[in-house]
Amino acid sequence: MNAGRFDVFYGFSQIEVRGEMPTERRMFENLIRQVKLADALGFGTAWIGGAHLSLQEQHRSGARPVLPHFRGEVCPNTDILQLATLLMSETRQIGIGSAIHSILVNGGPVAHAEAVRTFLTLKSLGPHAHRMLRLGFASGRFDFVQEVFGIAPRTAAERAVWPAVKGVVLREATEIFVRLLRGDALASGDLPPRFLADGTEIPPFWTFDRIRLVPLDSPLETLRLYLGTTDRATVEAANAVLPCRVFNLSSTAAATIDATHVHMAGVYHPDGGPWQRRYMPRTVLVFVDSTRAIAAERALAAVEAWQRAMEGTVDPSKVAQGMNNAVFGTPDVVASQIAERFHPDDRLMVWFDFNDHDTERVERTMHDFVAHVVPLIESRVA
After folding, report:
1. What tens digit of pLDDT does each residue of 9-65 get?
2. Distance between CA atoms of 190 and 210, rounded to whole angstroms?
3. Which of 181, 173, 169 is nearest to 243 (CA)?
4. Which pLDDT band, with edges at 50, 70 and 90, does 250 fall under?
């Protein structure tokens, strides 16, 4: 199997499915089993979801429950670097990716740049020195998490246009993060002033005297950066410093995908070489079975469970849209759907665990995909 074409994606959501709620321990045990299998099957990278703070407690205590119908936690992975250390110790060659790592929380971009440099330094001293970390990073999912760490409107004017201000905050954090990650000496005053589209200046959220991170000699060769936004100004600011690819998780129109590739070809940092389509990996939900009806039933159950968690009800029109975003059926049908929907040079993050806590079934699907679907896809490309 072409490890440069196929990755595996783990949403890793502790969500109630058909009345079943797995424990956190079972979630982690299932993840370790599945990543070990992905490594053995030849997938290139295991991308793993991330989140912070209990959603259930926010529902009980928060003034504005963000997902009031969600039973469970969005994701128990709060630290991709510690998780990567564990998973690398259990596997031989698969890379580990974050989907997505928030650089706004837990100390902000300075702390996260320091943590990544430390991780890379320690990894370089052991048997996993060659292993790849693919760091997808952005703001994170929920405002209530960011507010704990001081990322909130500071004035009535900011509150009125907070969605736009949040984009400026991510741009500021991104530039701090990549410059310190590169090893620069940096003061907050070195950064350019930031403005909204109407010309309103946004004061910085992070102010600090000139600093430089240690370890000083962290090796960056096994790090790949992926921005969890396609905001042009943020992408361009990041790529003025280091090669930063982009991460595409949601269902996105083909025209938007193509426009992003055109933009990235013009701004991608030259140290990363020419821009390639595989530098923007794309998720694909896969349900494969020798019986098409069984695959369709599994896809439907997963989509309905997710919509019920997000909205508290099942809307047939939205279920239909969710089914359109999945590929399901027998191996030949799944291979045909992937060939029709994706460019041959796209890197695919194949999602097997979507709302499915039956790890034996997930692992069978992984086996079936590699044994029966991948050869059909690769024969079409050859």
Report:
1. 999 999 887 788 999 999 999 999 999 999 999 999 999 999 999 998 998 876 788
2. 9
3. 181
4. low
Strand partners, 329: 288
Residue that has been written with the tokens 């000083």 in this structure: 216
Task: Tell me what pLDDT residue 203 has.
Answer: 97
Position with higher pLDDT, 288 vs 323: 288
Residue 67: predicted pLDDT: 83
Residue 282 has pLDDT above 70, yes or no: yes
The pLDDT of residue 20 is: 83
pTM of the model: 0.94
- Burial profile 45-82: b = 16 or more Cβ within 10 angstroms, e = fewer: bbbbbbbbeebeebbeeeeeeebeebbbbbbbbeebbe
Show the CA angle centred on residue 39, arms to residues 127 and 369, nearest 5°.
170
pLDDT score of 315: 64
Q: How far apart are CA 202 and CA 192, in angstroms?
A: 11
Q: Count the Cβ atoms, other than its own, within 10 Å of residue 279.
A: 22
Question: Mean pLDDT throughout 347-352?
Answer: 95
Asked if residue 7 lies in contact with residue 47, where contact means CB atoms within 8 angstroms, the answer is yes
Q: Scan for tokens 């990073």, then name that residue.
A: 137
Give the architecture (CATH level 2) of 6-286+333-371: Alpha-Beta Barrel (3.20)
The residues, ordered by sequence, that sit 6+ positions from 295 with a Cβ below 8 Å of its Cβ are 287, 288, 289, 328, 329, 330, 334
pLDDT band at 248 (very low <50, low <70, confident <90, very high): confident
Contact 370, 1 (CB under 8 A): yes
Q: Where are the domains of the chain?
A: 6-286+333-371
